[in-house]
Structures are given as C-alpha cells and as structure tokens.
Amino acid sequence: MITVKNKQAMGAYIHIPFCNYKCHFCDFVTAVGKDDLQESYSQVVCQEIEQRIKALSEKPVVQTVFYGGGTPGALESNFFSKIHNTLLDNVKLAADAEINLETTPETINLEKASLWHGLGINRLSIGIQSFDDQQLAGLGRKHTVAQAVTAVDVTAQAGFGNINCDLMYGLPTQNLASWKRSLDSFVKLSQQFPQIKHLSAYALELAPQTPLAKMFPEAGDSKAAENEYLAQHNYLLQTLAKSGFEQYEISNFSKAGFQSRHNLNYWQQGNYLAFGVSAHRHLSPYRSANWRSLPQYMHDWLGDESLEFIDEHVRFKEAIMLGLRMTTGINLQEFKQIFGVDLLQTHSHSIKPFLDANYLAYTEGRLKLTATGQPVANSIIAAFF
User: Is 15 helix (H, G, I), strand (E, B) or coil?
Assistant: First the structure.
C-alpha cells in the first residue's frame, strides 16, 4: 500500500505511443506502424490504471489529465474511450478538472473531435510546429499549413473553447524573416479563432541520434546562429505580448486564465500519476518511470525502469531550476521557509554577476530571469550548482 502523503489534488499523465510516422526531431517513445497493438496496449494501460490506483491508500483527487505521446489522436476512438473511462472510474475527478489531449493536425476530423469533447476532453493541443510547408517537410511532418488551419477550425466547431498550438523556432535553415511569417500567421489564426488560448513555442534542441541531428550536426552551417536564435526569441516575446498572450514560463504563453494547469503542477513540484510506456510519475518523495521498451512494458506494466528517492538536496536543485523557468521567478522568502536557505547570501557568487549583467532581476522579493537571460537559462541555472 502506497500512502498518499499530499492530500491535495494531483495530475495524471497517460502516454499513447502510436504515431502514423516519426518526426525527424522526435526523441520520445513512439510506436510507428504498430497499430495492430492498439487494442492490447489499451487493455494493458487499463490494467495498470486499476492496479496502481488500487495500491494507493485512498482514491486520488485528480485536477488535471494529460494524454501525451506519441500521437494520442491516432488511437482508435473506442480504445481511447476505454482508457479514459477506466481512469474516470478509478479516480475522483475534480469538478473543474483540466483534461488535455495532444495530437497532430492530420489526425483531427469533426467526428473524432466531437467524440473527444463529448468524453470531457476540454483542452486540445495541436502540434502545428510551423506555418511554412517547406519547414514542415524538413521536420518530417506529414501535414500542411492548410491542414493545420482546418484542424483548428474543426476543433472549434466541435465545441473546444481552449486550444493550444505548438510552434518551434531555431530550426535548421530558418531565419528571422521566415520565423516572423510563421508567428504572424499564428497570431492571425488566433484572431480568427478566439478559442486559441495558448501557445507553446519551443526552441529546437537537436536530440542525439535523431534524423534531424544527423542531417544538421551541431557545428553545421545550417544550425541557427546564436544571434539569429536571439532575434527569433525576442520577436516571439514582443509579438505575443502585443497580441494578448502573456508569458508565464520560458516556452509558454496564454490568454488570461488559460495557463496549462497540468504543466504548472510539474513546475511547482506537485504530485502526478502516470500510466503507459515510458511514463514518469511523482508521488512524493518518490519519482519513478515505466519501461521505455514497448514489449517490456506490455509484459511488465507495473515494473519500474527507474525509481528515485527525492531527497532535500534534489528538491532544492529542482526548485531553483523550475522556479527560474517561470516568469514569476523564485519567491525567496518562501524558498527560505521551505529549505532554510537565503539564496541571496548563500549563492551571491552565482547571482551577483547575472544581476549586474541584467540576466537576472531581483524585484519584490523574487529572483527571476530577464528577457535577456531567458535564452541562456540553462547556463544561468547551472551556475547555481
């Protein structure tokens, strides 16, 4: 029996690995060309949900649900319904729960979107990535810009009032002019469809061994130059601020009241359940992950590929890392109450140079990254340790 120490509501993540193709930048656990496993995988995930929750000391209250992948929209509707209903049967779902599903434009049609909405999914995340057909092809995406626009239209028709779009910048061969066109197209689309409440805009990181990394090695001429990347980042901040999207995390922007509550729970070190191949969970003070191998997971769905005890030292480091990624920064008084550490004193050697260089700011008792510091956040965070 696993005691749920934190009585507050938690999140739940369900990994759906099935994809119609593998994108050139993708480093996630996916299952391409294995649709024949959809039924058996769904059965295993349902068993995992039932058995893991049964092992808890009490039925958990879930405030957010996120179906990630992979491409959850590629899962046949009857199998998706089975997984979702199994989850609902085994948890106490908060009345105002945020229930997310991410998918790609070409998997969305009115029938599917209406079914998802009817099941209670109330936030749809669409992986558009670019409003440039040539860039989409270079990323290995199989949808076009026209299909992306249609997907948003269909999602809105199905009744969704909370749509997120994903974009990427810092792409190989991308320049500021093409990024401006792509981002401006998103802004125009959000004005046409006010149901778009959120944008996740990620700077591309080339994961090793992915096709894109092999096509564009780190030292290659086609990798975005640092000044080009900084210009794209600055245009992102300026454009979205003028368009009513408030930045609340380095890569995330939302209309007022539409932040991703599921991701906020991650960034605030909350508890979350997780089910499916490669899924990671956090039930304080432990964090664990399911097998990354799909066959191994199907055989041993309660097995852990990793199990980590989160001690005070780890929590301390992660509180700094996650806190600085948020635009609200770190509340230093609360930090001191939790960890007994005055960061301005104990880490002045790390903090002062960044304050002087305008990479960090200290205002109203909070330590936060400036717009100048955000692009080099990883280096700043590393300096604390």
Answer: strand
Q: Tell whether pTM > 0.85.
A: yes
* Residue 350 binned pLDDT confidence (cut-offs 50, 70, 90): very high
Q: Which amino acid is at 68?
A: G
367, 328 contact by CB (below 8 A): no
Q: What's the helix, strand, coil split of the chain in %, to 5?
A: 45, 25, 35
pLDDT of residue 221: 47
Pairing of strands 18-19, 31-32: parallel
In a 3-state reduction of DSSP, which class is residue 198? strand
Handedness of CA 56, 86, 62, 268 (dihedral sign): positive
CB 199 within 8 A of CB 130: no
Alpha-carbon separation of residue 326 from 308, 319, 341, 345, 369 (angstroms): 25, 11, 20, 22, 8
241-264 pLDDT per residue, tens: 999 999 999 999 999 999 999 999
